[in-house]
Design a protein that fits this description.
There is one protein chain. With 208 residues, this protein is mostly beta strands. The chain has a single domain (3-206), classed as Jelly Rolls, CATH 2.60.120.10. Helix content is 12%, strand content 42%. It contains 4 helices and 13 strands. The chain has helices at residues 35-40, 171-180, 187-190, 195-200, and strands at 3-9, 11-20, 22-24, 27-29, 54-60, 64-71, 78-93, 104-111, 117-123, 127-133, 137-143, 152-154, 184-185. The strands form 2 sheets. Strands 1, 2, 5, 6, 7, 8, 9, 10, 11, 12 and 13 form an 11-stranded mixed beta sheet that branches. A two-stranded antiparallel ribbon has the order 3-4. β3 (22-24) and β4 (27-29) form a beta hairpin. It is globular and about 55 Å long. It starts with a strand and ends in an 8-residue tail after the last helix. 26% of the residues are buried. The mean pLDDT is 94.
């Protein structure tokens, strides 16, 4: 993996890793995952404990919103990328003792196969994850824990208690589009927990 840049966004724990693609007239080649780099590269020190056990690929149509999802037992850290498409990635702090509890951040990700670089976003435990698709897009997740339907939950993006103040100004238009302009959201995600109900849930003690 040829690392171009690593930076924190919105929250110190959320990272964006930009890697190089090797592009020529034939197309491109890139290493998606190389465990030795995760162990040895100092700029990826935050990934030293990351153990890849499940990889997922999804495809979503324009105006779909998925999220805001999280899991405990096992916890799931994620490395997320957009192989092709255009999305806004969302991450909500669900750690009860955090100073930023209930605040949401967002990061725009756009990728085409001709691009010379590719962004990964790292999402640690303690954050609920969601995506809004600005175009028909594919999304790939590398996960540190296997999916467990008995210990997964979600916060509904419709919850008025979510604090959007850390987001860039352009996200206000995206927020309005998600909440008011006919976005496509599953019934399960619409009926997710509110922050108030999550705070009272005994399982919230897993995230402090």
């Amino acid at each position: 993996m040829k690392i171009i840049n690593v930076k924190s966004i919105i929250f110190p724990e959320i990272k964006v890793v930009t890697v190089q693609r090797f592009v020529d007239e034939r197309g491109f080649f890139t290493e998606l995952y190389k465990k030795s780099d995760l162990i040895n590269l100092p700029e990826l020190d935050f990934l030293k404990g990351f153990d890849l056990v499940q990889a997922n690929l999804s495809y979503s149509k324009k105006k779909v919103f998925r999220g805001l999802h999280f899991q405990w037992d096992p916890y799931v850290e994620k490395l997320v990328r957009v192989p092709q498409g255009h999305i806004v990635d969302f991450f909500l702090d669900i750690r009860k003792n955090s100073l930023t509890y209930g605040k949401i951040g967002a990061y725009e990700m756009r990728s085409e196969f001709v691009d010379a670089t590719q962004d990964w976003i790292y999402l640690p435990k303690g954050f609920a994850h969601g995506c809004y698709f600005l175009a028909d897009s594919s999304l790939e997740y590398f996960c540190s824990g296997e999916y467990n339907p008995k210990t997964e939950a979600g916060i509904t993006v419709m919850d008025k208690e979510i604090d959007w103040s850390l987001c860039d100004p352009f996200i206000s238009d995206i927020k309005k589009e998600i909440l008011e302009s006919g976005s496509i959201i599953s019934e399960k995600d619409k009926k997710g927990l509110t922050l108030s109900s999550w705070t009272k849930d005994p399982n919230s003690e897993f995230f402090k």
